[in-house]
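Quarterly update from the structural biology core.
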Amino acid sequence: IVSVRADKLNIKYGVLTYLTKNVFEVSLIDATNLKVELLPDPPGYVETADTDDDSDYENFRLDFLVHILVDKVKLDKFAYLSDIVDVMVDKADLSLEAYDAYAAVTKGTIDSPLVHLKYEDDGIDDDEKLPEILTFDNGNGAIEKIYDIDLPLDPALHNLTLNHARYYMDVYDTGYFDAKLDASWVHTLLKVDYVDIKHDLGSFKVDGTLDFIDYYNMDFNIEGFGHKTEYTLNHYEGGLYDLKGKGHLKGDLVNLS
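Predicted structure, tokenized:
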């Protein structure tokens, strides 16, 4: 069950481009206090057995029958709430595009995004928590095969700027940071053109690829440095103070170099 509420929702669109170019163009989506909430199942709900062929499900792909362009999305206070993750946004100014199995933010700025992943000890049933990725086979140190991740659509984030962002869960908190990023995911392959993060502790850049099949082969260039500040000196035992580094991470989870 999904609940959608907003104090204001204004959508402007035209049909001319659809009739002439087969493109459905939305000039503006303007929303205030937009809240999307994924509600828990009602008491007594019993999920029916899925009789569909598993292979059909694995090969399922979303398909936008119409090419959609959204020139401008203006959000003033947005929230996505669920049992697994909460996302809060103060303001956002975005452009979107979708066609076939592709869906993307083509450019934009998001102010004060806050992501809370409810993973450990948040009152979530064990079967609803995220799976542990690494396990070991009979104590001999061999990593079991990891599930392949082939998404039902190809998402992308292009020319996106995050201001005063924060991600946290029970056992980890990034603190606040600013970021610029450009990345896309096609079937199993994640391609990061650039992620540039600026934090009170320092700066961090990464680009490369990660293929979510077998043991997740990756090829990343990484660069970072720690600020020479009192804040950096007093966190992580001062280990990041004036630290500079550059590296190339290549291989999979079994054989990294």
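Residues 149 and 212 are 5 Å apart (CA to CA).
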